[in-house]
Amino acid sequence: MPDDPRPTLLVTRPRAGAIRFAEAFRARFGADWPVIVSPLTELRPTGAPIPEANDYIFTSEQAVFVMPPASALPRAGRRAWCVGIRTAEAARAAGFEAIEGPGDAAGLWRMLLAEAPEGPLVHVRGEEVAVPLAEMLHDAGLEAQEVVVYRQERLPLTPEATAALAGAAALLVPVFSPRTARTLTDAVADTGAGRRAPIWLAAISGAVLAAAGGLRAEQAEIAGHPDAAGVLDALERLMRVQ
After folding, report:
1. Residue 169 CB neighbour total at 10 angstroms
2. What is the radius of gyration, based on Cα positions, of the chain?
3. Cystine design at 11: which of 18, 141, 162, 216 (Cβ 3.0–4.6 Å)?
4. pLDDT tens per residue, range 150-177
5. CA–CA separation, 25 and 96 (whole Å)
6. Are 63 and 150 in contact, with CB atoms under 8 Å apart?
7. Structural contact between residues 51 and 193, judged by C-beta atoms closer than 8 angstroms
8. Coil, strand, or helix at residue 231?
9. 177 and 223 in contact (C-beta within 8 Å)?
């Protein structure tokens, strides 16, 4: 059997999100498309107590998943200000009155300033965030605090991903955050095997593309809108120009 001429999709998101993105990719481009799932991080809850409030802020769906059960922290009538559609869907499914933001934390900050909900606002977040929302909201005069409910522990690349990076066939690599871009760059270096495979990078934003400079991608596209659908569009543009 000849090698598959199509570039392999390499997804490095946390496992649940990676599998979901791979499924969306195959639904769009072909159910038999070659895919490697190699999560670079694993979510670890911190166990931090979450205060009761009428308004919560979520900039990741992972933060929603870490929330205690509704029996411990009721959700009925409580609003969840969510960064984008996927997080809003998770919050709605968890029982919150979800308000969908524009897809990025800076846009959500502007929305909150315009709406000025009565506090306290509680930003439920991971250990690392690109935009310190609670601090920015507090500085703007809104009552806001934050609680770190999870951290992401680093994982090595799988043997399959390492072999693909050392091979000659091109890899389609979607990247969703500056942190992931830096982690992937370090993970590739840590393999010690070098990298021959051409990387076709689809970055969710310009900041992510800048953070991925160490990967030395042969081709790169930035998503037209900061969500999974935008990254899929960027991957399609990469495939068209080859």
Report:
1. 15
2. 19
3. 18
4. 998 999 999 999 999 999 999 999 999 8
5. 29
6. yes
7. no
8. helix
9. no
Q: Residue 176, CB half-sphere, CA atoms under 13 Å: how many?
A: 21
| Exposure of 123 in the CB half-sphere (CA atoms within 13 A) | 25
pLDDT tens-digit map of 196-221: 899 999 999 999 999 999 999 999 99
- The pLDDT tens digits of the residues spanning 121-142 come to 999 999 988 789 999 999 999 9
* Mean pLDDT, all residues of the chain: 91
**What's the rounded Cα separation, in Å, for the pair 230 and 169?**
24
Length of the chain: 242
Confidence of residue 242 (pLDDT cuts 50, 70, 90): low
pTM for the model stands at: 0.76
Are residues 35 and 171 in contact, defined by beta-carbon separation less than 8 angstroms?
A: no
Band (pLDDT 50/70/90 cuts) for residue 191 is confident
Paired tokens of 205: 């934003």
Q: 184 in helix, strand or coil?
A: helix
- 39 Cβ contact list (under 8 Å, min separation 6): 12, 13, 14, 15, 18, 155
Strands in the chain per DSSP E? 8-11, 35-37, 41-45, 55-58, 79-82, 97-100, 121-126, 144-154, 171-175, 199-203, 219-222
Confidence of residue 189 (pLDDT cuts 50, 70, 90): confident
Tokens linked to 15: 């496992």
Alpha-carbon gap, residue 51 to 178, rounded angstroms = 29
Beta-bridge partner residues of 200: 172, 219
